[in-house]
Fold:
Amino acid sequence: MTGVTEKLKRYKIREKAVFFLILMSSLYSCRGIGMEESTLYPSWDVRKKQILVWATSEKTKVDRGTLKNSEYWKQFYQKSIVLRPDLDDFLYFADEMIKVSRIFEEGKITKEQFEDKHHQLTALLAQEENRRANMHSSSRGANAFENYEIELFSKYRKSLFLTYVNDLRRQLNAAGPQFSSSHCAFFGDSIQCTTQNPPF
Structure:
């Protein structure tokens, strides 16, 4: 029985590591369009390494319980948005993770529910990043940047993450005026809300 328990623990640790890597790879999957190295924007590799080192270090604090999940995601957003200011979806992702973290910290959902939502949002962000990367790689030639911007604008309403956010708003509105998308989220069939105001 002990052997089975240890295997399950190792599996869960590996699973968490995989989802963390998915998140990091989604953040770095394509270079910010038009963001060449300058005093405002250091090289892509330099910034990538800085964020990866920071994220890995701070994640251990979360795992040890010395840093709140919500504070981790708030700082993660603030640091990463400098790296990827072109991603509106990342704003939605960070907002959702901060909100879900606060709901968890207030004791309204279990750790399993929190992790399930984290996995769902991370996978959705990775899918959207891959979609945008494919759009960018298909835009070639002298007007590649212009074509990418036009295509991105025309297809933005089809964004997987924007669709998720809009669907969440519609479902919460249908559930009742007391449920706000900035404070509430679905966990299975139940709705839970944080009492704290959005950080941004």
Q: What stands out?
A: The helical segments are 2-28, 44-64, 69-83, 88-105, 111-138, 144-155, 160-175.
